[in-house]
Amino acid sequence: MNGTIIQEPPPFLSKDQIAILKKTMLAGFPPEEQDLFLARCERARLDPFSGQIHATKRKQKVWKDGKPEYIEKLVTVVGIYGMIARAVRTGNYEGTEITWCGPGGKWQPEWLEEENPTAAKAVVFIRNRKPEVAIARWFSFAQEVKNQDTKQYELTQHWYKMPDFMLSKCARAAALRAAFPDELADFYIREELHAAPELEIVGGEEEKIADNQAREKTVVIPKAKPVEMHGERPTPAEASEPAFPEDMSRRGSLGEKIARDYPSQDKPQPDLQAGPVTEDDLNMDPVAPAGGPQPPAEEPAWKTHVLQIDHRRFLGKVLGELNEADRHTLETIWLPKVEAGWEKANAAQKADYPMVQACVAYYKVAKPWQ
User: Fold this and answer.
1) I need a surface site. Which of 29, 173, 230, 295 has the fewest CB within 10 A?
2) Alpha-carbon distance 258 to 365, whole Å?
3) Could you tell me which of 227, 214, 237 has the C-alpha nearest to residue 338?
4) Each residue of 26-41: pLDDT tens digit?
5) Domain-by-domain residue ranges, the chain?
6) Percent of the chain at pLDDT exceeding 90
7) What is the pLDDT averaged over residues 132-150?
8) Could you tell me which residues come within 8 angstroms of residue 205 by beta carbon, excluding any fewer than 6 positions away?
9) How far is residue 59's CA from residue 324's CA, in Å, rounded to a whole number?
10) DSSP state, 189?
């Protein structure tokens, strides 16, 4: 020891500021959670008064006696400029480069299109190190809420008005954490936590499920036979749980069965035009009048079917307009779930089920006539 006295830095928040925070932002939280938030402000030296760091109330999933429970907790989130401030203080931050891309995958330095970007990429440059890169996909982070009037999921205000900026914030935050793990490893911005399944906004998913269960009896589907529910209904907390792999059907999806039992793509296809047509030929095309044009083929029912699956990706969407990724989700997750719990399926699910089956079968079976 050479007698050097190491001085502690002065407190970041004064006693008056702490008192104000406890009366305003932290009011309603238990004292221990208030102290934890204040300690994080002090350690990170981020200013809650300027929006660099926030205290939010969310429901966090915890396991008790082997069952999940949701409890309200204070969850700390930071602003994107709070993360940048922490990075700048290291002296090694040399800026961030943001680019966006659309469905074609071409990256560009600005987003001037009318449609929403498909992804945003952030490259954070660090002194004496290779840059860190992070990509945020639109589907992973775009925030939607259910409109109680139209019963449709809609983008939240900020994601609707400035989609490019909101998506770039998610990419930038992920790249900054990778670039400065000591300073930012446990800091997340608000937009990222909306996509985290372990943290739900208070009054979020469970309230939506409870509301859906209350309205389920009023759903009227033309020509659909009401289904009597047997057994005890799951609670909203139980219903909001994601499916575990062991809960999924072991039998495989309908598309996999068709591909396995009818591997037509691996065999040469018969020439449907060769030879005279007999009554035994399976020619299901409409017969055109002699000398006249052939009437247009009727669209199958599933192509125009409007889905009633109560999920932001599918509710109110036309089945025939879904992309390949959405069809794959329905085939591998939704169909097996409905099959496994068919006795408890509601009328809406039973109306969607055959239409989704027909859609999956159409894209799985080889079409030699095309």
Assistant:
1) 230
2) 7
3) 227
4) 988 999 999 999 999 9
5) 79-181, 228-265+301-370
6) 32
7) 88
8) 236, 240
9) 33
10) B
